[in-house]
Amino acid sequence: MKPELAVEPLESWIQTDGKPLIIAGPCSAETEEQLCETARQLKELGAVHVIRAGVWKPRTRPGSFEGMGKAALPWIQRAKAETGLPFAVEVATPEHIELALKYGVDILWVGARTTVNPFNVQEIADALRGVDVPVLVKNPVNPDLALWVGAFERIAGAGITRMAAIHRGFSTGETSKYRNVPMWQMAIELKDMFPQLPIIGDPSHMAGKRAYLQELAQMAMDLNYDGLIVESHIDPDKAWSDAAQQLTPAAFGEMLDHLQIRQVESQNLEFQGAMEQIRAKIDNIDRQLIEVLAARMAQVEKLAEYKRDNNVTVFQPDRWKEVHETRAKLGKKMGLYPELVEEIYKIIHMESIRKQTEVMNSNIQNA
Ligand SMILES: C=C(O[C@@H]1C=C(C(=O)O)C=C[C@H]1O)C(=O)O
Prior knowledge:
Elements: H1 10-13, E1 21-25, H2 32-45, E2 50-52, H3 73-83, E3 87-90, H4 94-102, E4 107-110, H5 112-115, H6 118-128, E5 135-138, H7 145-157, E6 163-167, H8 184-193, E7 199-201, H9 203-207, H10 213-222, E8 227-231, H11 249-258, H12 269-309, H13 317-333, H14 338-366
């Protein structure tokens, strides 16, 4: 069964004049001055639709700054009144929801550390029943699409229809130049499942460092994301949390100026004709690719029968080493991204092993 979500289009709940939705603000509300001044400078850019700030901060270890809590809520009221912009805050418990709504927070978001826990998400969903507020859901910390989807289903189950996803990247244990590995494929899969669900890129949490913000924000735009959420602080180096990834409102304005916003389609007939011709060639090449893969698998299957009849193991480390090294080298020589060929061959090899194991086991069953 294909899952379905009743989601209202972004334009119906927030006006952006066809431009990407821009949410910006400090990682944490630290002081009334810091919050209101950051909000004021962001408003001045003329490109920000929503101000964000963390009030309750889930920190990995105790002892770090955990947010100002309730004390920051009146500052939010002031920042809202002064800028006229709506405000978004992370909530992790029913109490946070109650307080945020009491103080006029317009948009709630569920953080990555909450999305991982279905008990937590359900509690939030229950607290949202009967409340008419937009809810953004960050991807879970770990790359588990089902947890992300589950959070939307639980929140939708409470009757919330104004929803969007925030893609903030994943903690994978791999070393990467980014704080959280984007794994763009995850968001693409989410979009495949729920085409109507808006996706907002969070380059700040992917990057971890301000130097990477521009490239990540551009990538999100090139993948047709509906918006961006970016951490901005009047004095980033002195920020009480996430100092390295925040940038001043002015630097954020420059970053937005450098973003290339492209269209999903073009009405240019010459362009459309060229696309059609090239895509026909790609279709043809893909058919050949699949035929070649099938031919390779047929040989693998034959080899497996010999291995079975001669009591030889499926996995052959020396041969595998030779295969993946020579193919990676060839790929590189052909100008392909080396990791591409390596990754493809890892998948081919695992399938080859699966198929051969099947052939081996067919003997056991027949014996
Ligand atoms: C096909 C074989 O079995 C396995 C699969 C390989 C492949 O698909 O290229 C290589 C080595 C083996 O681990 C083989 O032994 O050659």
